[in-house]
């Protein structure tokens, strides 16, 4: 009998003691036989580490000397592991016993599959898709990310409409499966992102190298979401707008990146005015700060872009329209209502 691939489920923790108490039991109940569970701690001060040591001696703990954020934190922890597969799992995710097996089986069938995600439902309402991943990520013509099952603030009910495994553009960092060989080939996550969209950047780099990103419909997890930064946090706004511009510069061919980023600056200006009209001046200022950072780091990110191949023929997951126009003007609120090609 062939031995199953070695899988490491890695939970990056920063002051997430309450989530660890709630959700580690479900992770430890996973039925995959060749599994190690690792908690990487970003210098927590809430007794997370002592809680794990006292209650889960079977879990390996890797302690970072400071809070490196999502990207650099995971890079440091995963550099110590030599498993065949890494699963980056948020601490606020509840899993089911057999959640790992279907994803690994799917990825083992095709050597060109680099990363994947399960179906992600809301923990608070398990009939709804979850905001941060749903059934896989897509990218529109202007670089705006969205999910099948969630477009902006419109979240669909799971009625089985997306119960077929398929190729996507990016997999959610909430429950992110990746082959170790591909992680090493891409040099992991871009640490300059700190948090938010670093998994989209990684998936785009994989796509630019002609690897596939998959959604596995046979596996389901439940995500709380917003566990570290609340949705309306100005810092979260800053990271999202900043990182989105950076991933466009890095991953698009130069000529196309210039055009798209020029247009995005004007679209972002509309977001600034919207935040001001909604009485959220700190969020509006955050977008301006994101633009300043982007301009100040043009040369730095241009050097990164030159290292990324742009010869992909795999366009699966790229939406040929504008999701902003379709959602706000054409009133298309569900993924199935989008008619343009992918």
Distance N to C terminus: 40 Å
Helix-strand category: alpha/beta
Average of pLDDT: 94
Cα-based radius of gyration, to the nearest Å: 19 Å
Number of helices: 11
Order of helices and strands: EHEHEHEEHEEEEEEEHHEHHHHH
Q: Care to describe what's here?
A:
- With 342 residues, the protein is of the alpha/beta class.
- It has helices at residues 17-28, 48-55, 69-78, 100-108, 180-185, 198-208, 234-251, 254-277, 281-296, 298-306, 323-328, and strands spanning 7-13, 35-41, 60-63, 85-89, 93-95, 113-122, 137-139, 145-147, 150-151, 154-155, 166-168, 175-179, 212-223.
- The mean pLDDT is 94.
Highlighted features:
alpha/beta; globular
Topology:
Blueprint: E1 7-13, H1 17-28, E2 35-41, H2 48-55, E3 60-63, H3 69-78, E4 85-89, E5 93-95, H4 100-108, E6 113-122, E7 137-139, E8 145-147, E9 150-151, E10 154-155, E11 166-168, E12 175-179, H5 180-185, H6 198-208, E13 212-223, H7 234-251, H8 254-277, H9 281-296, H10 298-306, H11 323-328
Parallel strand pairs: 1-2, 1-4, 2-3, 6-13
Antiparallel strand pairs: 4-12, 5-13, 6-12, 7-8, 9-10, 11-13
